[in-house]
Amino acid sequence: MTEVESPVAEDANLESADLNHDSYPVWSSDSELGLEQARHLSSERGATVAMFLGEVGVGKTTILVELWTDLLQYGSLGDALFGGSCTTIPFEERSFQSRIRAGSCASYTLKTNEDDDGFLHLRIRRGDGRMVELLLSDFAGEHFTRIREGTELADELEWASRVDRFVVVIDGKAFNPSAGSMENALNRTSRLLAALERLQQTLPLVGRPRPRLLLLLAKDDSIAPETRTGIEQALDQLLVIGRRVDAGCELLRVAARPTNGVSAYGLVELGEWLTDVDGAVTATVLPSVVSSRAFGRFQNG
Amino acid sequence: MAESVARIAFVGFHETGKSTYLGAFWQIVQDDRDLSVAEVDLTGDRSHLQFIGEQVAAAEQLKRTDVDSSEGFRVRVRFNGTDELLLDVPDLSGEGLRIVVEERHWDARLAQAVVEADAILFFVSPAHLRLPVRSAFTDEILASVVTDHIDPADEEAEAEAEAEAEAEAEEARPTGNEAVDEVEIDDFVPVEVAFESRFACSSAHIIDSLENILALRAQTKITRVGFVVSAWDSVDQRLSPATWLATRLPAVRAFSEANRGRVAVDVFGVSAQGGQLPAEKAALLAKGRVLDRAFALDATGTPIAVTAPMRWAINSD
Q1: Can the peptide bond before residue A225 be classed as cis, meaning omega within 30 degrees of 0?
Q2: What are phi and psi of B73, to 5 degrees?
Q3: Contact A27, B106 (CB under 8 A)
Q4: What residues of B are in contact with residue A257 (Cβ under 8 Å)?
Q5: CB spacing of A98 vs B134 below 8 angstroms
Q6: What is the ipTM of this complex?
Q7: What is the per-residue pLDDT across B263-294, written as a single tens digit (0 to 9) for each?
Q8: Least CA distance to B87: which residue of chain A?
Q9: How many Å lie between the alpha carbon of A287 and the closest alpha carbon of chain B?
Q10: Which of the two residues, B281 and A228, has the higher pLDDT score?
């Protein structure tokens, strides 16, 4: 309760105050965050920046959508509690078609266009009580096509040097013999990993923790059982390259939206990996953030 | 002499029961049999309170509050065991919160109420919840799209056209001997529905609102938020309000839990009318006055006074 001088007129009108809606900015965003907004959020609260790499159709946005939907439906991912987001509406926009096209129609996620490039925000409270702010990239696959074709990662996406977590997404569907695209998928992934390796060589060795890398095999449910043993060797080869970027690189199999009747899997582990702040990645809600960990090195695209 | 003022912001989207609760509260304040709260100063304009209170007393559904309404509850009261205080509760329209989420700006009156409030009572209606589940979500969206495209002026003509079409269909109905074309399901082309903010699920709307409320109150160390689940008579009575929140809006519950350093949350179930209108109107009126039929539960499902959420809100200790 507050103390005010009496008397307070019964007919006092709050509208008499000199107010307009510009006085009260809406904090959250109805579109994905641009670099400026992401930088602002990061410098204010600290954030773990995750870049999802993969060409058009590999399933980057679907993974983000299903992470979001799981958090809404259950309030948690494993031990991690949903703590909020300043991009609820953009998450909902990306989830919309997959919800509306339910039932007899196959659900899908709209392709991300370059105009829609940006970051989605999640706040997660880990099982140990630590709060983690995540900035998850949702950038069009065309960027990664150009990187595969030879453009340096830092030239294509200038904020790449600020990334804490790289998630290279591999399309599991490509490994089915009938698709005839396994070799292309492996080559493309290898070239993205090579681009990451080159980026790593340009990063300063001190000042901040080295970024971590995860190979994410999306649509794992679509890989036929008889094919699995045949692709293990190929995946091992990718892991070898991945471990040149990050010695702790692992492969995570994810079925975010399985079509064969099994339950989704891999999302909890992805959430744990993204929010694993051991190694002092900047992920506290402390207002003061070491500047080198903030978005100071972001360049406006 | 300084006077204590308790400011409570009622927030919630359309038809979540904010004004109905305020009307019921006012009726109970005036009921001498209730000892939980009493009016201590009978002077001043009570016309709006009388208006909504009398509608609740008559078991009528309240009409929407205008977004620019400056009405509300500004009455000097004493809760049982408290000192006298001026209770200030603006009667805010759900339109204000809709504008925040869908049009991305604050209505000045809502913003001021949120900033100045000692506590927030966030009203949630168990009806019309849009869940992030595919089947329920699709039904809700389609219902809303269909409703939006019906011009009331055309409804009569539409009904006539439907009757004509039915008559024609009756005439054309196969007798059993005709060959009937099969519907080619593969040829079915679904209608594209473009996303709009209003189509977001209820959890997302509430989370977005809470994020903006807390951002607006960044200077407040801990914001007290009481979730009032209205029309509790329509909820499965085996559930407690806390369980209802956890099962129907798990993300909202998780948000409250995860942000314990920023918010102090409680949950109430309230039936300000005591039953469903208009179906149970006669039975409700037969029970007597508002005090005799309205009811409330605390988070665990224990019966409490209908005035208890207000009492919780003013208790800043």
Answers
A1: no
A2: -110, 110
A3: no
A4: none
A5: yes
A6: 0.83
A7: 999 999 999 999 999 999 999 999 999 999 99
A8: A1
A9: 12
A10: B281
Which domains, ranges and CATH numbers included, belong to chain B? Answer: 5-128+196-314 (3.40.50.300)
Q: How far apart are CA A72 and CA A76, in angstroms?
A: 8
Q: Is A72–B251 a contact, with Cβ atoms under 8 angstroms apart?
A: yes
User: CB of A36 within 8 Å of any CB in chain B?
Assistant: no
Q: Which of A141-155, A269-283, B192-206 is least confident?
A: A269-283
SS3 category, A31: coil
Beta sheet of A118-125, edge-to-edge order: A76-77, A80-84, A118-125, A131-138, A48-53, A165-171, A212-218, A250-253
Helix, strand, coil proportions of chain B in percent (round to 5)?
A: 45, 15, 40
Give tens-digit pLDDT for A31-82: 999 999 999 998 887 899 999 999 999 999 999 999 999 999 999 999 999 9
Residue A177: pLDDT over 90: no
CB pairs under 8 A between A and B: 180
Say if A197 is an interface residue toward chain B (CB within 8 Å).
no
Distance CA(A23)–CA(A136), nearest Å, equals: 30
Closest-CA residue in chain A for B7? A1
**How far, in Å, are B127, B142, B299 from residue B123 at the CA level?**
12, 25, 14
Give me the residue from B133, B212, B257 closest to A73, CB to CB: B133
pLDDT at B83: 84
- Give A263→chain B minimum CA distance, Å: 15
Q: Which residues pair with A124 in a beta bridge?
A: A82, A132
Question: A284: number of CA atoms within 13 Å, CB side?
Answer: 8
Cα separation, A107 vs B134, whole angstroms: 10
B111-134: average pLDDT: 91
Q: How confident is the model at residue B72, as a pLDDT?
A: 82
